[in-house]
Amino acid sequence: MISQQLNDQITRIGANDDAGMLLRQYWQPAALCDDIAFGLPFAVNLLSEQLALVKDRSGFKLVTRLLDENYSPTVIPRAEEIEIDIDGPTYPTVQKNGVIFAYLGSGEPPEFPNFDCFRAPDTHVFAFKGLWRCNWLQALEVGIDPAHASFLHRFLQDEDPMEGYGKQFRDTAANTDIPMTKILREYPRPEILVDETEYGLKITALRHMKNGLTHVRVTNQIFPEAICIPMSREMTITQWHVPIDNENCYWYSVFTSFDKPVNKRLMREQRLQEHTVPDYAPRKNAENNYNYDPREQKFETYTGMGLDINVHDQWAVEGMGPIQDRTQEHLGRSDVAIIRYRRILRQAIADLLSHKSAHLPMKDDATSAIKGPLSNDAITKTSNWEKASQAADFDRRNLCPWDASI
Asked: What's this model's pTM, rounded to 2 decimal places?
């Protein structure tokens, strides 16, 4: 558990709040490129600022918009309803593989790392987003807890992997015919190792199996608020958890294929079945009890809330309340990545307040040279697990149709 003062420091994101000042030192996802089709100006609620995406001769930028009396942080007004505040601040943007990033900080923005989600050609990426009604930090922390997948995302029956395109945990594991859902279900207590890296954290979950084998799953925390995880043997997901205000956030995901071009039409259709636009609000939510079905919970899934794991995560993080009360939490062994991340976050805040911005992660000239990160599943002999994920990563990159070399 931590003090209320510390909980406020690491969660609140106003322009004068410590975490808010830190997040403004980095590029933030502000909109999808697909959002342009809804018309400009397009409303953007980001880091407790009410903005609008516009385009002029120099390209896209974020400008401040005037608020009407019916303002809500999770509502996207129509273009014709938006009034621009000509005296408000303006922020630069850049487009990266389906996502429009904005920089709300002072001084020169940092370089982008050369991650796979940015290096891959447009044909091999797909971007989407979704609204969660909770603070950004609890949204992030569920993604750096490898143990939760064996419970929250437990499937009591295994689907045909051939029908799992575009869905997480529906593929087979590594180079076997074992469904990922079966491994997560049968080996629910992973050994978790965490290593600090130049981009954040490398998180390794070891599920020791029968016959001297181990399932190795490598995920990542990318500072300050992103994760990179394997979706299937073919794809990874890089996901940011972006504050709208203190009590609401968007997740932005870029799906990156190392094999065939992404079927963007199918993946968008799948996700629009679960979300409305242009607010990207989930159709399953607290108001309809996330469509909870007790029969499904008995026979199909741990939560009884459908097969989309985003809904499972949404229920878990929204159920903590708008801002998780960490004064009452009791972290355990499986929370090691969360503990390590909070230390990095607190140190970064301390460095920023001490005017040591050069010490912040991924803020130096070497950032643009950072590649990867490695993110995959492998099954190997327990005695050789350390080399297994590296070998699997090398093979996937070597066969990749675009330059994924590292």
From this structure: 0.95
